[in-house]
Amino acid sequence: AEVEETLKRIQAHRGVVATIVVNAEGIPIRTTLDNSTTVQYAGLLHQLTMKARSTVRDIDPQNDLTFLRIRSKKHEIMVAPDKEYLLIVIQNPCE
Amino acid sequence: IGHPEIFPLVFTTKTQEIFNCRVDEDVTEENCFKLIKKEDIIQDLKTRATISDFHPIKKVVLEYPGEELLVVFDAKFQYGQNFYFVASEEAKENLLKPPETTEEKGEKEEENREETLEIHPYKPPVHKPWVSLGSEKEVEEESVKDTVTKIKYMISRVRKKFGAPITFTDKNASQVKDSYFECTSYQDKTFSIKILEKDVGVQMVPKVREASTQTKWTYPKNAATQYFPRQLSNEEKEESLSSEKLKEFLTSVHLRMEIALQQNEIMNAFFDDWKALAEDENSSGGKPDVYLKAYQSFTDLQYLKDRTISCICWHPTIYGIIAVSARDRLSYKEQVNLSDKSLLQQSVILFWSFFDSMHPQLMLECPEDIFCFQFSPSDPSIIAGGCINGQVVLWDISQHEEKLQNAKTVADGIKITAVSTVNASILNILQYICMSGGKNSTEPTLVRYCAVSSIQYSHKKPVTDIHWLPDYFEDNQMAATFDKRAETRLQLVTCSPDCSVLFWNIPATKLPEQLSSDKVREGEIFDMPPDVPDTFKHLDLCWKPLVKINLCESDINTEYGPVRMSLRELHYHYKTSEKVQSLNTLEVPTKESPYTEMGTSSSKNLKVLQNISTDFFVGTVDGEIVYSDWKMEIDSDSAKPVIQKHTQKDTIHTETINTLQRSPFFKDIILSVGGRNFAIWKEGITNGPILQSSCSAGRNTAGHWSLTRPGVFFIGRDDGNIDIWDLLKKTHEPSHFQNISESMITFISPWTASPKQHFVAVSDGLGVLHVLEICQTLSHPSRNEHADVLDYLEREVKYLK
């Protein structure tokens, strides 16, 4: 229930298009988009997050990735990584 | 020391005893002189040799001319040692004597000083005899004397030779022998040195060389191909959703995410102020040049003679193709009595291409004059049109699509099918038999229609408006076998002044049930000509509408004759996208309606769709705007399905409505054009229109929203003018107007062919299609235009209340 509540709160922010929770292997657990898009986002962003995290840790082993934001023309993709899960939120920035 | 004759000596006590010059006994400070005989010294030197004190001055002693040598006791160590030895006679004498004289002088001076108090009398100097001290010798030595007598010469010359002119001549010195002496250089053998030995360095380079190359080392790498994505089953998802780890994860992560989301909400960090400034400049500064540039105009003398264009449609996917439907130019009275009109001339839909303005590319044959037609949004080769007699016609031009796409090259060599018209009464119009005939290649291809709706169930009056419904409208839940083909199902809605709105369904393939329960025509099914695609063969002549809605108020029992209609959610997707959420099917609870009786045997149980709005606007023949709902509910009194929801009706326009269109930007804003004025309505506001124009001098005959700018729309007039209205600039008069033709404008259709090219197609009463290019100020919205127009509309709504 808490899980639901947190996810609902995030989804209720202004401009949020979609919310996806991905597990450590890149398989989506929870999503608000349709299946094929979710799978695409999950796979691609999981790999990108792994790459980003390894980059950060290569430079400084004490460091770790806390947040990843990709700003594109149409919207902004925000990824919050963790040890086991990944939270992906896609938002339209206010114009 | 200055005295070369003085030699300091050290006398040891032994030496002092031998020579009786013991310190403080024989020799004291006052009596410091001691004369020692030379022989004694020599004797001592011999006996004692090197240890003798005189050893350093042995040589001097031996050379000493005199007999006795003087040794002086040097108590004050004046010369460095306690004794010194005087080496010369003269010095000896000087040393011995002067001390006496100085002593004496000293005494005398002391005596004199005592007596000098007395004045001395002046005594002139006494002449003393010259004492020679040896200075004459020096003088003599220095004086110069002639050693040799000087020789005298006297030279004389004759006097006249003095001062005579003399001439000088040059003479080479080498001519005269011995006149000069030279020292020539010669190679002196003694100075030539032969190199017998030379230092040479040699470096040795080893013959051994190292070289290396890099070879491609292919190491084995795992590669994998995934055919479909891994997914978790529902139970696994549930399990992980409820796990503790997920809770912890979310608690730790959601704060970061919310910060980022809020940052985005507060401001857009990537907003380019410079670009925005440029856009503002464009819109605010000065009077921009607003115009519609004439691009092309199309007309055809053969098929469009004496005809007017009733509807324009742009081809949704192919660039530069416009389709135009023509109908007879009728006066107003004749338009009312359409049913008596008989066909004299073949009515067609012409396809024009930008690249060929003389010849239409394609022609679609129509059974009757077409009032309106539309391309199907999901498949642009299917076209549906509504005829003057109430039928709905379908065409399939997929065979000719390639030709349309290559419209640049002139079509050639395609055999055209000619048509023989059968002038039958309206009730028996069935099909036309096409005959192929040889025609020259510049004639456009004539495409026959694929299907016509059954006359019995079509409209009774001309079909005035036709719309395709988007994919997710399903008015009838089909049998299970049918659901899989949901994508290909197409739906149409038509309206006609016979007070009915019909929903048509085009099933993709034949329904076996349909055929069986079909009410076959009275045995007059003709075979289709061979070259017509049989896409809709199964529908031909037996096509029935799905749902029929009678527009009549339940209590007042008035009927409305809709001319134009506008449904709420008409999103056209020209590419099938999976993102469209498939909604539940619309199911209407009705059992009794005879109009839903279909050839399909499937259920009559239809449930109401939750999310789709079923409201629609209808503009009627009499100029009314009706806002109603097609949800069928059972009327308790008459047990007939009627429209239950309260309808709202407004009469603003005095004449028939010719345009009723939703704004492409705001889903609840409708533009209605009719008669002498136009109005803008907002769905849900029942007081009246948000904006209503004043009555204009001429009649407004056509209208359309601009596709790119939210606040701009075009109104066509009966004098051939186009008025361009901009809601943000002026609301009481058009911001710009332009004359297009001399006759009245019948249809306006804008189109965005590319981000740079915006066209508007305008047809006039003479059958000419004008394509105009919209200038940039009219086609590009300013930055906040959407928000500004929204504000304006909301303000207007507020004023109404």
Radius of gyration of chain B: 70 Å
Low-confidence runs of chain A (pLDDT<50, min 5 residues)? Answer: none
* Biggest interface: A-B, 41 and 32 residues
State the secondary-structure class of chain A.
alpha+beta
Strand order of the largest sheet of chain B: 6-7-8-9-15
N-C termini distance of chain B:
138 Å
**CATH architecture assignment name of chain A:** 2-Layer Sandwich
Q: What CATH first level of chain A would be assigned?
A: Alpha Beta
How many β-strand runs of chain A?
Answer: 5
Give the arrangement of secondary structure elements.
The complex is a heterodimer of chains A (95) and B (801).
Chain A: H1 2-11, E1 16-22, E2 28-31, H2 35-59, E3 68-71, E4 76-81, E5 86-91
Antiparallel strand pairs in A: 1-2, 1-5, 3-4, 4-5
Chain B: E1 6-9, H1 13-18, E2 33-37, H2 38-48, H3 58-63, E3 68-73, E4 83-86, H4 89-96, H5 98-115, H6 135-142, H7 234-241, H8 244-266, H9 273-284, E5 292-298, E6 307-314, E7 321-328, H10 332-336, E8 347-353, E9 362-366, E10 370-375, E11 382-387, E12 392-396, H11 401-405, E13 416-419, E14 434-437, E15 445-447, E16 451-452, E17 465-469, H12 480-483, E18 490-496, E19 500-506, H13 512-517, E20 545-550, E21 562-567, E22 615-620, E23 624-629, E24 632-634, E25 641-643, E26 648-651, E27 657-662, E28 669-674, E29 677-682, E30 691-692, E31 700-705, E32 712-717, E33 721-726, E34 736-739, E35 745-752, E36 758-764, E37 769-774, H14 776-779, H15 785-800
Parallel strand pairs in B: 9-15
Antiparallel strand pairs in B: 1-4, 2-3, 3-4, 5-37, 6-7, 7-8, 8-9, 10-11, 11-12, 12-16, 13-14, 17-18, 18-19, 19-20, 21-22, 22-23, 23-26, 24-25, 27-28, 28-29, 29-30, 31-32, 32-33, 33-34, 35-36, 36-37
Subcellular location (chain B): Cytoplasm
Keywords (chain B): Cytoplasm, Repeat, WD repeat
Protein name (chain B): WDR63 protein
